[in-house]
Write a structure and sequence with these properties.
The complex is a heterodimer of chains A (115) and B (113).
Chain A (H helix, E strand, L loop, with lengths): L3 E4 L2 E4 L5 E7 L5 E7 L5 E7 L6 E2 L7 E2 L9 E3 L8 E8 L10 E2 L3 E5 L1
Parallel strand pairs in A: 2-11
Antiparallel strand pairs in A: 1-3, 3-8, 4-5, 4-9, 5-6, 7-8, 9-10, 9-11
Chain B lengths: L2 E4 L4 E4 L4 E3 L1 E4 L5 E7 L5 E7 L5 E4 L2 E4 L9 E3 L8 E8 L8 E2 L3 E6 L1
Parallel strand pairs in B: 2-12
Antiparallel strand pairs in B: 1-4, 3-9, 5-6, 5-10, 7-8, 8-9, 10-11, 10-12
The chains are: A mainly beta (115), B mainly beta (113).
């Protein structure tokens, strides 16, 4: 069973606030990802990391930033939340030492509502 | 480019019916193919995968065969249960890189008792 955690699970916040979504994994995976998903809809990659001190932007333009100071921790920050940021945010990790077709393991998600 | 197309939902079936969810893809290299499932209120999880042509992935009674000639990876199950109600995502990793999953739009499956 995958051990990847996200907090908070639900967040309601006002416009202009700074927020940080937490993601941690205990599997020692080098690769980590953030996706944005409207519930039950297509996933959009917004950030990924190959390892400590590595971060890249994904396909979907996002006003968020990420950091990777420790292998197990990959937080996502929104400096100034807006209603357009309302969505579900999914964190995932994978092990590049795996065989071809590595599996991504997902956390339970954070549902964000910006008023 | 790389893309995944899967049948639109929702798909509504009665319990014990046969299920097919179609998935076709385009890829620049030799991709690996996946089906992920998202149960209500739960995180995404891998259902099955196949990494080369003619491979069959299987799990929990679901199967999908990697068909290179038709660029397809259709998901099937012989007899569905109410507990199979979920959103199913077809995805691929391109053959030229292994970091990025390319996702289909998802198909919502509703099974009625």
């Amino acid at each position: 069973e995958a051990d990847i955690y996200q907090t908070p699970r639900y967040l309601v916040i006002g416009t202009g606030k700074k927020i940080t979504l937490e993601c941690s994994q205990t599997m020692g995976h080098d690769k980590m990802y953030w996706y944005q998903q409207d519930p039950g809809m297509e996933l959009h990659l917004i950030h990924y990391s190959y390892g400590v001190n590595s971060t890249e932007k994904g396909d979907l333009s996002s006003e968020s930033t990420v950091s990777r100071i420790r292998t197990e921790h990959f937080p996502l920050t929104l400096e100034s939340a807006r209603p357009s940021h309302t969505s579900q945010y999914l964190c995932a990790s994978s092990d590049p030492r795996g065989t071809r077709g590595e599996t991504q393991y997902f956390g339970p998600g954070t549902r964000l509502l910006v008023l | 480019g790389n893309s995944v197309t899967q049948m639109e939902g929702p798909v509504t079936l009665s319990e014990e019916a046969f299920l097919t969810i179609n998935c076709t893809y385009t890829a620049t290299g030799y991709p690996s193919l996946f089906w992920y499932v998202q149960y209500p209120g739960e995180g995404l999880q891998l259902l099955l995968k196949a990494t080369k042509a003619d491979d069959k992935g299987s799990n929990k009674g679901f199967e999908a065969t990697y068909r290179k000639e038709t660029t397809s990876f259709h998901l099937e199950k012989g007899s569905v249960q109410v507990s199979d109600s979920a959103v199913y995502f077809c995805a691929l990793t391109p053959g030229d890189s292994n970091y990025q999953l390319i996702w289909g739009a998802g198909t919502k499956l509703i099974i009625k008792p």
